Amino acid sequence: MTTVTEQPTTTLKKGFIGQSIPRKEDRRLVQGQGTFFDDVRRHGMAYVHFVRSPYAHARIVSVDVSKALELEGVYGTITGDEVAIQTDPFFEMSVEPGNKIKDYALAVGKVRHMGEPVAAVAAATRELARDAAELIEVEYEPLPVVLDGEEALKDEVILHEEAGSNVVWSGVFEWGDPDRALAEADHVVRIERLYFHRFSSTPLECAGALVEYDKGTGEWTIICNHQMPGVGAIWMAPALRVGIDKLRFVTHDIGGGFGNKICLHPQYVVLCLLARKLGRPVQWTEWRTDQHTANAHGNERTFLDVEVAVKADGELTGFKVRAIDDCGAFPRYEPLGCIIWAQVTPGMYRWRNIRVDFTQVCTNKSPVSPNRGYSRMQHLWLTERIIDIVAHELGFDPVEIRKRNYVKAEEMPYETPNGCVYDSGDYAAALDQALELIDYGSIEERRREAAARGKLLGVGIGSTLDSGTNNFGQSTLLNPDLQFSGNNEAASVKLDIFGEVVVTLGTVPQGQGHETTAAQVVADILGCSPDQVNVRRGHDTWFNSHAGFSGTYASQFAFTGLGAVKGAAELLRDEMVKLAAFVLQVDESQIELADGMARVKDGPPEAALPFMALGAIVNANNAFLPPDFNPTLNHRYVCRPYFGVVDKERKTGKLTLTYAVQVHAAVVEIDPETGEVEIVDYAAVDDCGVRIHPQIVEGQVHGATAHAIGAALYEAFVYDEEGTLLTANFYDYHVPHALDMPPLKTGALESPSPVAPLGAKGMGEGGGGGIHCLCAAIQDALRPAGAPIVWASHNPPHRVWEMLQDPEATRRNVTVESR
Amino acid sequence: MATTPVSSKVVSLEINGEQVELEVPARRLLVHFLRDDLGLTGTHVGCDTGNCGACTVHLNGLPVKSCMLLAVQADGARIRTVEGLAPDGELTPLQRAFNEHHALQCGYCTPGMLMSATALLERNPHPTEEEVRIALQGNICRCTGYVNIVEAVLAASRGESA
Hints:
The complex is a heterodimer of chains A (819) and B (162). Chain A is built from 21 helices and 29 strands. With 819 residues, chain A is α+β, with helices and mostly antiparallel strands. In chain A, the strands form seven sheets. In chain A, strands 3-5-1-12-9-10-11 form a seven-stranded mixed beta sheet. A six-stranded mixed beta sheet of chain A has the order 7-15-14-13-8-29. In chain A, helix 7 packs across helix 8 and helix 11 runs parallel beside helix 19. The longest helix of chain A is centred in the C-terminal third of the chain and has 28 residues. Chain B is an alpha+beta fold and 162 residues long. Chain B has five helices and five strands. At the A-B interface, helix 1 and helix 18 of A face helix 1, helix 2, helix 3, helix 4 and helix 5 of B.
């Protein structure tokens, strides 16, 4: 067990895995020499601006573009009518009724959320495009709106008439025997309602693309910041009625993604149509207000009728819950969120009897998309709320009840009730380390000291799993007819003519440092320095180094991305060894790769071939090689993790393969006069198995924690009763600034994954622990003030103040039946 | 005398030590002038309300958000952008500290952070942590939680970078 302190960053020695070497990406980025999509220019390119709905729900009576087209410098427009003729609706993944929803690239017939694109205009400058958009006249006939998930279930206002209901997907998951667990429990704790709010990670670079159409070949080149182009193409190509080979995605540097750049296919299809229609490159950069209003919110979820079975000694044996997930106006990536949570069904606990009745609905709000911790975070928040409410109401110590119910280190690998396998970890040790970092032993003394100053001090724990390497077969638990399963990622590694090691990745990094970590792995395998390894920036479909599920999402780079890099580098290594053995006329077993050379072990200095010699022989000087020996020194490898097949009847299977752990602990002080929460101490402990680059791992922990603190205290997408978003920019949607962030203490454990190629688990999405621990800390702090129950994931001062004013209102939300 | 509104104006300014004279639309933002007209794409745009600070540049030595100024307002000014920090490729101690302390992930906010922090260190070479955080409060980062950015600025102020 080590507590992360500063890592050495300068001295390089073998092996590079495990060292925090200076990131390869940084040199260009600190000089403003990164290339983001909006930095790319093309001759004669047009700037695109979308005309967006001011209404949350309205029928489109007419769209008149004539005045816009009269403006000098305007190249053209596109409307929903053209989209309806030239494209097909996007593929829907749900069963009925969700699969009847027709989702087009622009609104057709009606609008269903504020900010929904209705038309687009392309012009010579950004300013002109905006002016022209103002001249497009759209007549609307407003309709009643539905903004709440439970209200939407009544189907009094229906968004998608063709579906006949607002329900996207609905189903019951039951494992074990929760009714029996409740019948046999000594205490049954019932929680009427818990609410996980709507927010998103809001990457600083907004979405966008530059799209070129080649009339001769019918191919589009999309220079963009899509973080999952493989899947983007699966949506786009059928909608555009072309083969997937007609879409070339190119990314360079991407300014953050966090899942929010996965559902960009509607806008990109509009750009493809405009580029083809106008015969010129078109460029669209989303405005911040548009990103907040109409791109990618996180899933909002209400948990109803929670029933928890508790034994007298604090053992938790089961729970039941009804979950209503609000995905906004269109399902897009959904209903995958209706199953993704099941990767972490029992959280970190040994619950064996669980029933989740899950329904997803549409409302007149922005569509959702995956957001850091996607769908698991909401569910893990539920499990942590259950733990802390049970402890609060039954008088258990929050640390002890966790340790009693955590999956134990000696039980690893542990199979959950729904067939997922937690691969490794020591949850109690992670908790102990977090508690040590916040000096848990002194809490009561600090509580008294704070009370003397008129402050309410509380402590909270948030334990969370970061499940990684998605099995897309879980989608068939929602829709048995879907033809998705498994996962894959590709990489290629080659030795070029002058000895250059060149790596291309299928992953699409957005700040995770893949160029650096891939170089570390390749350097260790080939026996050279990471400086000698050129990892190509970004993604290009033409690299041919991607696979069907390529992208950076679902905490899987350490497994699939680096697994592919490792596989390709090993193929190259084996061939280099074989080539060197042939040239030096020794047995392959006598060759070692080291110091950028293939040399005879313990041989004389001249018995060595620098990489340059190997590259030159194969690429430029190969006449002497015999016909039956044909090295290419250019290898592509696809990492295909093994999951087995999911059981559609029992709804079980390996939904993911690795389970990184984060335990967060926070100490807060609340001002009872204002309800303001101040974080006075904070620690996060991460265990993601082998850390390829500890500094990058710690950076991910910092960043995810900042997102959690923002979500818990500051960030919420709030709508008025007409469906107008009230927090549509960084004025009203306050993300943490440097002064808002408390000092963060971090710790690390390393429980290597027995299933991952490098023992490294995907990580980066464990930040939800911050939301859990702040909710717990607030509840703990408010205990002397009427002991209210924290029921929402977002607790700004006004909500804390409300709990202070009327603690009973929240206490009525919870009942305890003891037998 | 009534004035006739003009739709464009010739501006003349010094950018990263070079004199530039160009006609710009009167309503063009300074940030779009830098990015689209001069190709200085290191300066970024992260919001449309002046909150995020990704577009921070120095105007006559002071950090300003270049999305909150029109290009014509910068007429006659001396501008420094992130491209002007290390014109010969020799990184400044602050840029090196950002690399050593992992003060950037996606790198999108980094130019603005560097310009705000450079301005701070120029007027206050030895700031406290609180002073660093105050100087950076107009710059949003969504990746790092600011921890390593603050560390990097303090390390640079102590002359610790390699």
